[in-house]
Amino acid sequence: MNCTEIDELMPLFVGGDLDAGEHVSVASHLVACSECRVCEGHYRDTMLMIATQDAPQFSDAVYAGMRARVLSEIDAHKPSLLAGFAALVRPHAKLAIASVLILLAATILLNRLGTVSEPPGAVATRLLSAPIVPDLLSEPGALRTGLRRAVPSNTRPTQTTVGRPSERRPAASRRRRERSIYTTSTAITPDAAAVAALSPGTTEAQPPMRVEMQTKDPNIRIIWFSKSLD
Amino acid sequence: MTLAETLHLHTATVPARDELADLVQRAVDGDREAFDKVMIETQKRVMSVAWRMLGDEADARDAAQETFLRVYKYLGRFDVTKDFNAWLYGITINACRDLASKRKYHEPIEYEDEIYTNGSDAEQASLQSQQREMIARALRGLPEKERAAVVLRDIEGMSTDEVAKVLKSTPTTVRSQISTARRKIKLYCDRHAGRYQTGGTR
Asked: Which residues on chain B are in Cβ contact (under 8 Å) with A83?
């Protein structure tokens, strides 16, 4: 190493901040170079003065006053109960609490959407309150057979289908289908509206019946209608 | 080992680590009395660093006050398994930086000789005072990061790695900052050496 390189390393050499190899190199150079030894001496004097750079000796009153101000400032800005709780709770606990709250909110939301399984009693109640189909009742042929209305093929709307079936189906439709998933069951209800519609004035006649059967396939529901028994 | 460590020149008393850790743990748990004791144990170091960073007693007091308020505020986030002193130094340095950035300019440091008249020899005391003034001025002329690095390394006696952690930097960067700072201080002293330097090789 030449003197220029030694001069670069000197500030770290006098503070003991060089690695072992560099330290040995500088030390061996200093043995042979008097100019660099002078420079080293100046650095050591400076380091000694830095190390002896005492801060003023502040009185106890200064420290006591400073502490009193800190404590009074803390008292003046005492956190609210909620903030105090938040400060006490560690970050991990906060994360756990937040996760539980999110799960709770998600459960409530899913319950409202009806995507979770319902108890059997709830399913039966919903079946019994299934809406009637006025259009079917108004068509004598359909009423007798219980079949779907015949729609001429030439009157069916033409749809352009692109993509997979699940992609083509609107989101609202998907949601409705998902909500209708329940177990196979049957409901028989007298249809008072149909009585009024089909045989006005014949109050003695037996009311027509509506029989609904929900298959395991949520897309298929069988609905039978019976005429009134004269 | 630093020169300061070698010479046993630290002015601030360092509390026993276990004792301080216990106090910090209690303070974290909300014990206000423990927090007060933590302040008592560390106030000299905080004031000392703040004074060296800012060069003014009133500013040092303000910085120390702000430091302890921040310590209280963020105590809940402190990991008690880590070194409290390093965390405290980091907060102190940041508080000093913030305070310095608020001040548009610094008043020149005026040293009163009677503060430093520890020895019986008035001439010697005056010389020491002048040396301190020279170093203080040299420190004040450094960029903040270099000043923080050299204060923590050469005056507080921390290792380069510890300084890097406190300053959220790398040891290589800190070494470079320390090297530059020492060189600048030495050059400043060289200019005033005829008047102030006392002994040693010249």
From this structure: none
ipTM over 0.85: no
The DSSP call for residue A16 is T
DSSP state of B152: I
Residue, of A39 and A1, whose pLDDT is higher: A39
A15 and B119 Cβ atoms separated by less than 8 Å: no
Q: How far apart are CA A62 and CA A10, in angstroms?
A: 40
- What does the pLDDT look like over A67-106, one tens digit per residue? 888 888 888 776 555 565 666 566 777 788 888 999 999 8
**Cβ(A211)–Cβ(A220) under 8 Å?**
no
Cβ B39–A67 below 8 Å, yes or no? yes
pTM: 0.55
Which residues of A are less than 8 Å from B77 in CB distance? 91
Q: Rounding to the nearest 10 degrees, give the CA dihedral for residues B77, B78, B82, B86.
A: 120
Contacts 24+ apart (CB under 8 A), A209-213: A210/A132, A211/A186, A211/A187, A212/A127, A212/A130, A212/A186, A212/A187, A212/A188, A213/A184, A213/A185, A213/A186
DSSP A197-222: HHSTT-TTSPPPEEEEEE-SSTT-EE
The verdict on a CB contact (< 8 Å) between A15 and B4 is: no
Q: A22 is written with which tokens? A: 């560099």
The four Cα atoms A218, A222, A223, A225 give a dihedral, to 10 degrees, of -170
Closest CB to A55: pick one of B2, B48, B69.
Answer: B48
Q: What is the CA radius of gyration of chain A?
A: 45
